Amino acid sequence: MVIQKVLVVDDSRTEQVYLSDLLQKQGMTVRIAGNADEAMQSIQVERPDLILMDVVMPGKNGFQLTRTITKDPVYADIPIIICTSKGQDTDKVWGMRQGAKGYLVKPVKPDELDKAIAALGEGRA
């Protein structure tokens, strides 16, 4: 699977810029959503190849949005990597149970992000 279009869902402008820069250096096109409503509108307009999802956001949180997306047959095949400050083992388990394909704790290290994205391709034919 080639990842070209990524949607970054995060309410922090700092994180939006940081993650966008990392992804753009890899040649990916990045779109930004600051909350769940913006994210759903964005994926309906242009389907991303990958979603990087924060958890702590106003309104619907990232766990809820991940579940909404992965349970919708129209969008269920879009992989989601959670990128959050919530680093407890229980948070990781819960995030994966919601349908996430990866879980990274902030601050996200560039090599960890690269490995998480590469792992998506290993699981697909």
Q: Regarding quaternary structure, how should these chains be classified? A: single chain
Number of separate helices: 5
The major pleated sheet works out as:
5 strands, parallel
Query: Which CATH top level class fits?
Result: Alpha Beta
Instruction: Give start-end ranges of low-pLDDT stretches.
Output: none
Supply the CATH superfamily name.
Response regulator
The CATH architecture comes to 3-Layer(aba) Sandwich
| Element order: H for helix, E for strand | EHEHEHEHEH
Radius of gyration: 13 Å
Structural class call reads alpha/beta
Helix content: 40-55%
How much strand content do the residues show?
A: 15-25%
CATH topology: Rossmann fold
Mean pLDDT: 94
User: Could you tell me the number of beta strands?
Assistant: 5
Q: Write down the domain tally.
A: 1
State the strand order across the main sheet.
2-1-3-4-5
Shape: globular
Outline the structure in words:
- The protein has one domain (5-123): Rossmann fold.
- Helices cover 44% and strands 18% of the residues.
- It contains 5 helices and 5 strands.
- It has helices at 13-25, 36-45, 62-71, 89-97, 110-122; strands spanning 5-9, 29-33, 50-53, 80-84, 102-105.
- A 5-stranded parallel sheet has the order 2-1-3-4-5, sandwiched between helices.
- Strand 4 (80-84), helix 4 and strand 5 (102-105) form a beta-alpha-beta unit.
- The N and C termini lie close together (8 Å).
- The modification 4-aspartylphosphate is found at residue 54.
Keywords:
single chain; 125 residues; Rossmann fold; 18% strand; globular; CheY-like_superfamily; Sig_transdc_resp-reg_receiver
